[in-house]
UniProtKB/TrEMBL annotation, chains A, B:
Belongs to the class-II aminoacyl-tRNA synthetase family. The lineage of its organism: Bacteria, Pseudomonadati, Bacteroidota, Flavobacteriia, Flavobacteriales. PANTHER family: HISTIDINE--TRNA LIGASE (PTHR11476:SF7), HISTIDYL-TRNA SYNTHETASE (PTHR11476). It catalyses: tRNA(His) + L-histidine + ATP = L-histidyl-tRNA(His) + AMP + diphosphate + H(+). It comes from Lutibacter maritimus. The gene is hisS. This is Histidine--tRNA ligase. The keyword Glycoprotein does not apply. It is an enzyme of class 6 (ligase). It is found in: Cytoplasm.
Amino acid sequence: MAQKPSIPKGTRDFSPTEVAKRNYIFSTIRNVFETYGFQPIETPSFENSETLMGKYGDEGDRLIFKILNSGDYLNKVDETLLASKDSLKVTASISEKALRYDLTVPFARYVVQHQNEIEFPFKRYQMQPVWRADRPQKGRFREFYQCDADVVGSKGLWQEIEFVQLYDAVFSKLKLTGTTIKLNNRKILAGIAEIIGEADKLIDFTVALDKLDKIGAEGVTKEMLAKGISESAIEKVQPLFHFNGTNQEKLNQLQVLLADSVEGTNGVNDLRFVIDTIEILGLQSAHLTIDVTLARGLNYYTGAIYEVSAPKGVQMGSIGGGGRYDDLTGIFGLKDMSGVGISFGLDRIYLVLEELNLFDTVELPKPKVLFVNFGDKEAAFCMKALVKLRENNVKSELYPDSSKMKKQMNYANKREIPFVVIVGSSEIEKNKYTVKIMQTGEQQECSLEELLKITQ
Amino acid sequence: MAQKPSIPKGTRDFSPTEVAKRNYIFSTIRNVFETYGFQPIETPSFENSETLMGKYGDEGDRLIFKILNSGDYLNKVDETLLASKDSLKVTASISEKALRYDLTVPFARYVVQHQNEIEFPFKRYQMQPVWRADRPQKGRFREFYQCDADVVGSKGLWQEIEFVQLYDAVFSKLKLTGTTIKLNNRKILAGIAEIIGEADKLIDFTVALDKLDKIGAEGVTKEMLAKGISESAIEKVQPLFHFNGTNQEKLNQLQVLLADSVEGTNGVNDLRFVIDTIEILGLQSAHLTIDVTLARGLNYYTGAIYEVSAPKGVQMGSIGGGGRYDDLTGIFGLKDMSGVGISFGLDRIYLVLEELNLFDTVELPKPKVLFVNFGDKEAAFCMKALVKLRENNVKSELYPDSSKMKKQMNYANKREIPFVVIVGSSEIEKNKYTVKIMQTGEQQECSLEELLKITQ
């Protein structure tokens, strides 16, 4: 019995049209990355398990795809362990490799492993798939691409400014206008914790504040009280509940609010520097806005935090994000390497562009010219022209069989091939080609040189 | 304790320079594929195990990387089965996905699954990594790329001719001259079996003949006798032991030898058609040669068989191969779909180009312009120029920190950045930029517009 073909949940096949559209996004991002001085690296699809495990929290460990050891992998496994049926513990004995979960940890591993070959500050980009055993839903897949740019070995704020410009440049080139680049700084969140008087309430506070959109100031206050944040503390940070206005107005409010916190004030100064510089330089199509609720892996970032949302009206989670981490490579033994980076979510950007019909200029991967095949003698004559056309980079093909004319024309129509060349014995005699321009139906006899001109 | 970073055996990191060189090969192959009318598809990195298992023989099944099921995967596994420690059987219970082993089986699965969306004949190409748990050695990796082009839904010989041209076009564009495209036809091998009088000796015969280079005619005769091939049969195929001369001479010998076999004669005719047509059309840099010892997965191919070897003097296995298979998709339920395809081995081609120093024209991914960073005021002034340069696609960057001049110049030197722009207070005053041309050491003061001209 033949198998009914299918693919694993959360994975996708990509048709020629989809590949072309995806490559359009990839090459747009790649060109901007390179224009900004980033260099590409690639890392293996799977890493040693110890490189990945424990780097993404318990949830991450669970979602990492593990690869079974090869050969008779059960041979040396302890029988009592097997009998226990403890999946977690057995995994360590039968699997020593795992699929890449993101690009940041492999990058950190790369930097440490190749530190002697790298010229710092190292500006690298990486565009590769990652895999997560997550529950699939709209915009969430088990195999998806990340496109990351990071700078490691510099603490400067200029790179943080450049990432705002870079986001703007990519989305503008994709004609995806009206994106919002949200910006925050971990130091501001830390400053708020200081103001509250309890540093250990930072996460509770941030989680509550993050719900402002949904539950309003009253709801947030209630949740904060429930988490044990004092009334006086909440009173102090009231301005954040009504945090509106221009970026400058927000900065001024934050400055007042965090006046008593050295770290918080540093955060406001850093943020102001980025905002002011961008205001002077201008952006092409994105909006830059301060969002103090933005945390994204709070335990990870130490300075700037970025997140990009799609234009209003498009239902989609974030299409990009990133931030600064002061100890990217410490876990692999290289201390004091500050890094800052951003990521583009290729698959979500694809869905947004599709929804907004922004793929109209993408050149689909189809030939420009089809040579009809009437038989070996005619095909041989066509082949001479085909060689010339291809030498001149004209995408062209000969129908591989001498099928009925109708079938061949049907193929040309379905694939929307703009030029069809027809060669019979009379053309061969005259050393000419009859070319049909499919859009108009117009036909003309021409020499090989003329054919080359028409189809180029 | 920090982990000492490493990557799994048989996998590789790619540095910016390596990525650039690899992309040069990828884009050369991609351009030729598209010029020949092929369209790209992509399939998931992992497939359901039943899609892959049993398709590559026992050896293949062993070398396929299996992915462990997620969650508490041992929960439902039979305890007696676990206690048996039968790795092969347990695998079926704890793993239902596996990493792609080649591109042909996923392509066959794709064709059947999407048959209603596909216009046949379907000319597709695919350039993706595959994974094999093979023992790593020179030119053999556990993660490597295949670049395949196939036509499915046509039995015509013209496509077989085009693949010879396509190989020649790719290697010529890569300046890899002197490759040998070896060509055979399964029907000729079947004809030989008929001549020998024992069809079941075909594989023994081919395996022995394949050793002609190493053990000579005498050794081959000895091995054939040992395998039970009769003396009179060996007598009959003597010409193959001294199979030299031009392709035309070989064709004539084969015609005589296989005169009594209908299938063999068909094979000679097919081969002659391809050879004759290529002789008329000509090749740019490759040699096309008939090789009757060429079998490559004998049980698989049914018509043309291709293999490409690197130029003489380069020690490397085949750098490409392929052939015709008359029942590509039958295993997934779609009968009578003839396909013919070829593959390029990216990683081996890379090694060959490296050995022959053929990467000299590859543009490395480095910026053209570095702006030295003397402080925020100077950097802000530089940033205005940077925005303009990047708008004009000039790869350029600002050193992210205001480090010592010497350190920044050292960075520019190490990365071989051709233009360094220096801006101090006097430049800001005059609204000028000082640009240093690194190769000559020459320095000049210029306006933003002049800078744009110089660096473009």
